[in-house]
Design goal:
Strand order of the largest sheet: 17-20-21-22-19-18-23
Distance between the termini: 53 Å
Radius of gyration: 32 Å
Number of strands: 24
Number of helices: 27
Number of domains: 5
Structural class: alpha+beta
Largest sheet: 7 strands, mixed, barrel
Shape: globular
Length: 787
C-alpha cells in the first residue's frame, strides 16, 4: 500500500457523491427518531419481526442462514390523511428520516457532537455523502469515551435503527411483481445514499464486535453474522437500485464505456461505476458484449510512446546476443538500468528484480527491437526502486547493496528474426520469470492517474476490473503466477501515489489502534457491507490462483476455471491462447510451441490436457478444428457456453481422438440408403428397434436452431447423452462410423471410430408416430473414438 501520512484521512468506505436536498422544506426536526413519521403525517405498516437472531428485517426464516426470495409486503407506509403516496413524497420523507434522522440519532447515542447540516450540506445547497466516510471510527471513538463500547444494550438500540432503515428501503412491488414507484435519477440516488448510511452504521457496530473480549456468539444474540444479516443478504432488493442501474447503464454507454465492462458489473457496481472519472476511455465501437477489442495492436503500425508527448529522447536497447546468451543457459535475463540510463544484463539466479506487466496498447512495447526511449527507462527504474523498497522495507544484507533489476517483455524477449528459437525459450520461461520475481508491477495508463489512498476498495476494484490490463490474455498469466509465488502476494498496481498491493486490505482505522492494534485485513462481513465482496469474487474469477487451476477440487474441471479467466480477454495472436493456458496449468510448453499454427497448437493443447470435459463434444456453437482427429475440438475455449465445462464427467483425448463411453444406436441399412446416397435425415425420426420393432426414442430438430442437413448415409449412428444438462442442449450426436478397433487387450472390446456430422434432440417414445428408422442399440458403455 502507498504510505499514508499521519494527517491523511482514513481510506473512504464509499465513493462520495452529491444528491438534491429534497426534504429542505420539511427537514428532520430532531424530536425523536421513532415518533418522527407520526409527527409528520405518515403511518408505518411494515414491522421488524425480530423473530430469530439471524432473520433479516421484516422477514422470518426460522433463524436459518438460508436465503430465499421472501419479500416485505406492500404498502410499507401510507399517509395519515389518506392521500396517495407518490414517489417524490416517499423519497422526500425517507431522506429526512433515514439520512438526517439516522445520523442525528446514532451520533447522540454514541456521544458524538455532529452538526449534520454543517457537515453534509454543501455550498450549492446539495447533500454530499463524503462525510459518511470515516463516521464508523468517529462514532466508535466517541462511544469509547462514554464507556459504551461493547455495551449490548447500546448496540441493540443502534442495530434496531439500522434494521428499521433497511426495512423501510425494501423494494415495493405489486402482486404481478411490477414496480409500484417509478423514480427519477435524482430520487434513485437519494435512496442509494440511504442504503449507504445504513451500511455505515452497521460498519460502526462491527468495530464493537471486533473488540478484545467481545465473545458473545450469534446464537446467543450478538455477533458479526447478526449485523450482516440485518443489512445484506441474498436476494435483498433495495428500493430504487434496479432503476438506478438501468439509468446509469445507459449513461455509461453514452460516456463511451465498453459494453463488455458494463455487462460484467452488478447493479451496485454500476451505481458506483457511473461516479468514476475516466479521462482516457478508448473507442469501443467495435467491441462486443463479452470481448473488448479496443486494446488490439498491429505490429505494422505500432508506435512506441515516450513518457510525455513531444519528447524525442533517444532509444536505448539491449543487444540480442546478450539475451540469447542468458536464455541459452536457461536463465531469465534481467536488466539493471544504470544512472546513465544504460542497460546491463544480469543472470544470477538470486539477483533481486521487479517484473513488469503491461498493455502494449499503452505504448510500452516495441516489435522491431529490444529498446525503449530513455525517458521510459528512467520511469521504469524509478518504479522498480520504489516498489522494491515498499515490498522489502528491511532487505537482507546480501541484497541491500545491489541495484534492483527489472524484467520487461519489450526488453527481455528477443525480437530479432535470427533469435526466433530463443524467443520461444523466453516464452517457455515466463512462468519462472514471474514466479521468481521479488514483486510484479502492473502498468496501465488509466490506473496510473488514480490516487489509490483516497479511493474506496470498491472503486479500486472497479478500476482494475475495467482496466485495459484486465482485457488482455498475457496479463492473466503474469498476474496469476505472481499472485501466489512463494505463498505470498506479489502483485502490485502502479497508481499515481505509488504501488498498490492487490488484495492488501488496510482499513487504517485509527479508532481501533488503541483497542487491539487491528488495522489490517478487512473481514468478510466488512467486505459485504462495503459492497466489495462481489467485486472480489469477480476479480478472483478473472485472476484465479495457480493452486485453483493446478489442484482442482474433486468434480471441478480446469477448463471451467480457465473459461472464467479468459472469457473477457483478447489477444492479437490467436496462437498465443493455448500457450498461455498451458503455462498457467503448469504444462510443458514445448509441445504447444512446436505447433505451426493455431489449429495445431490447440490440437497439441487438448492432447496435453488429456482429460477433457465431455461437454465439449456436445457444444454446437463454436468453430471447430479442421484437422483430423480433432474435428470435435473447439478452436476457442472462450467461444463455448460456460456450461460446457461444468459438472460433466471427463473423457480422454490422445493422438487418436476423443475417447468416450456412452450408449447409443447404430442405424440399420435401409432400402432408401442403398438406392439414394443423397437422402437427407428427416427432421423427426422414430428410432425403431431392428430386433423387436418397438420405438426406442424420437430424434428431432428444434425450430429455433439452424438446421444442419445430415445425409442419410452408410454407417450412421447416434451417441446419446444422459445427464442433468441434456434438457438445455442437444442430447444426441449424429456420427458416421468410419472404422472399428479392438481395444483393451484380451477383453475383445470394440471401439467405434467416428466423426460428428450433426446434433439432434432426443425425446421419449410416447408420441405420435413419425418417420421410422431401424436401429440397433449399443451397450450403455459403448466405446467411441471421436475424430
Amino acid at each position: 500500500m502507498p504510505n499514508v501520512s499521519a494527517d491523511m484521512p482514513p481510506r473512504p468506505e464509499f465513493t462520495p457523491f452529491t444528491i438534491p436536498y429534497l426534504c429542505i422544506s420539511k427537514p428532520y426536526d430532531g424530536k425523536g427518531f421513532w415518533t418522527y413519521p407520526e409527527r409528520h403525517g405518515w403511518i408505518i405498516h411494515a414491522k421488524d419481526k425480530k423473530c430469530h437472531v439471524l432473520c433479516p428485517p421484516g422477514i422470518c426464516r426460522d433463524g436459518s442462514l438460508a436465503d430465499s426470495r421472501t419479500r416485505v409486503q406492500s404498502p410499507i407506509l401510507s399517509r395519515i390523511n389518506g392521500m396517495p403516496v407518490t414517489a417524490s413524497d416517499k423519497v422526500e420523507f425517507l431522506q429526512a428520516w433515514l439520512f438526517f434522522g439516522v445520523l442525528t440519532e446514532v451520533s447522540a447515542l454514541c456521544g458524538l457532537e455532529l452538526d449534520v447540516e454543517a457537515e453534509f450540506i454543501v455550498d450549492n445547497g446539495s447533500v454530499s455523502t463524503a462525510k459518511l466516510n470515516g463516521l464508523p471510527g468517529r462514532w466508535f471513538a466517541a462511544a469509547m469515551k462514554k464507556n459504551r463500547a461493547g455495551d449490548h444494550a447500546f448496540m441493540e438500540h443502534i442495530l434496531s435503527i439500522v434494521r428499521h432503515a433497511i426495512l423501510m428501503l425494501s423494494e415495493e412491488k405489486a402482486e404481478d411483481h411490477t414496480r409500484i414507484f417509478k423514480y427519477t435519477y435524482a430520487e434513485c440516488r437519494v435512496l442509494h445514499s440511504l442504503d449507504i448510511t445504513a451500511r455505515i452504521v452497521a460498519l460502526h457496530l462491527l468495530l464493537h464486535v471486533y473488540m478484545p473480549g467481545f465473545t458473545v456468539t450469534d446464537e446467543n444474540g450478538w455477533g458479526r453474522q447478526r449485523i450482516l444479516k440485518s443489512v445484506d443478504w441474498l436476494y435483498r432488493e433495495c428500493e430504487g437500485m434496479d432503476q438506478l442501474s438501468d439509468i446509469v447503464e445507459t449513461e455509461l454507454t453514452e460516456k463511451g464505456w465498453c459494453q463488455s465492462e458494463i455487462d460484467l458489473l452488478a447493479s451496485d457496481d454500476l451505481a458506483f461505476a457511473s461516479l468514476l472519472t475516466r479521462p482516457r476511455i478508448r473507442d469501443h465501437s467495435s467491441c462486443g458484449d463479452v470481448i473488448c477489442n479496443a486494446y488490439q495492436t498491429d505490429e505494422a503500425t505500432y508506435v512506441t510512446r515516450h513518457v510525455q508527448d513531444g519528447c524525442s529522447c533517444k532509444f536505448v536497447g539491449v543487444p540480442a546476443s546478450l539475451l540469447v546468451n542468458a536464455l541459452s543457459q536457461n536463465k531469465v535475463p534481467k536488466l539493471c538500468i544504470t544512472g546513465q540510463l544504460e542497460l546491463r544484463v544480469v543472470m544470477e539466479d538470486n539477483y533481486p528484480y521487479i517484473a513488469f506487466s503491461h498493455v502494449w496498447a499503452d505504448g510500452l512495447g516495441n516489435p522491431l527491437t529490444n529498446a525503449l526511449p530513455r525517458c521510459q527507462l528512467r520511469r521504469l527504474r524509478d518504479y522498480a526502486n520504489k516498489l522494491y523498497r515498499t515490498h522489502n522495507p528491511a532487505p537482507t544484507s546480501e541484497s541491500a547493496d545491489l541495484p534492483v533489476a527489472l524484467w520487461l517483455d519489450t526488453l527481455c524477449i528477443p525480437v530479432e528474426r535470427s533469435a526466433v528459437a530463443y524467443r520461444k525459450k523466453a516464452i517457455q520461461l515466463l512462468g519462472k520469470t514471474f514466479n521468481e520475481a521479488d514483486a510484479v508491477l502492473v502498468l496501465d495508463r488509466e490506473l496510473e492517474i488514480v490516487e489509490s489512498a483516497a479511493a474506496s476498495f470498491l472503486e479500486l476494484g472497479l478500476r482494475i476490473l475495467c482496466s485495459g490490463w484486465m482485457k488482455r490474455l498475457w496479463t492473466l498469466q503474469e498476474a496469476t503466477l505472481a499472485s501466489e509465488a512463494h505463498n505470498i502476494t506479489l502483485l502490485y498496481f502502479q497508481m499515481h501515489d505509488g504501488p498498490f498491493l492487490y488484495q492488501k486490505y488496510d482499513r487504517n482505522r485509527r479508532a481501533l489502534q488503541r483497542v487491539n492494534e487491528r488495522t489490517t485485513e478487512v473481514q468478510a462481513e466488512e467486505r459485504s457491507l462495503l459492497l466489495d465482496d462481489g467485486m472480489m469474487l469477480e476479480l478472483g474469477a478473472q485472476l484465479p490462483s495457480v493452486g485453483m487451476m493446478r489442484n482442482m477440487r474433486q468434480g471441478w474441471s480446469p477448463f471451467s476455471v480457465i473459461y472464467s479467466a479468459i472469457e473477457h480477454r483478447s489477444t492479437s495472436k490467436a496462437e498465443d491462447v493455448p500457450i498461455c493456458i498451458a503455462s498457467l496449468l503448469g504444462k510443458d510448453l514445448s509441445t504447444i510451441i512446436s505447433g505451426a499454427d493455431v489449429e495445431q497448437r490447440m490440437a497439441n493443447f487438448y492432447v496435453l490436457m488429456r482429460e477433457v470435459p465431455l461437454g465439449v463434444m456436445w457444444c454446437e456453437g463454436p468453430e471447430r478444428l479442421s484437422i483430423k482427429p480433432f474435428r470435435w475440438a473447439p478452436l476457442s475455449i472462450s467461444a463455448c457456453p460456460p456450461t460446457t465445462f461444468m459438472g460433466w464427467e471427463d473423457c480422454v483425448c490422445d493422438s487418436a481422438g476423443l475417447h468416450v463411453k456412452y450408449g447409443g444406436f447404430i442405424f440399420a441399412e435401409s432400402e432408401e440408403e442403398r438406392h439414394d446416397s443423397k437422402a437427407i435425415l428427416p427432421h423427426v425420426i422414430d428410432m425403431v428397434s431392428a430386433e423387436t420393432g418397438g420405438v426406442l426414442g424420437r430424434l428431432s430438430d428444434l425450430p429455433i436452431l439452424e438446421r444442419r442437413e445430415i445425409t442419410l448415409q452408410r454407417n450412421l449412428a447416434v451417441i446419446v447423452r444422459h445427464d442433468d444438462h441434456s434438457g438445455m442442449h442437444p442430447a444426441a450426436a449424429i456420427v458416421v462410423v468410419e472404422d472399428t478397433v479392438e481395444v483393451d487387450g484380451g477383453m475383445q472390446l470394440t471401439e467405434f471410430v467416428c466423426r460428428i456430422v450433426g446434433y439432434m434432440y432426443l425425446w421419449s417414445s410416447d408420441r405420435d408416430p413419425g418417420t421410422g428408422v431401424r436401429v440397433h442399440a449399443t451397450a450403455v458403455d459403448q466405446m467411441w473414438c471421436i475424430t
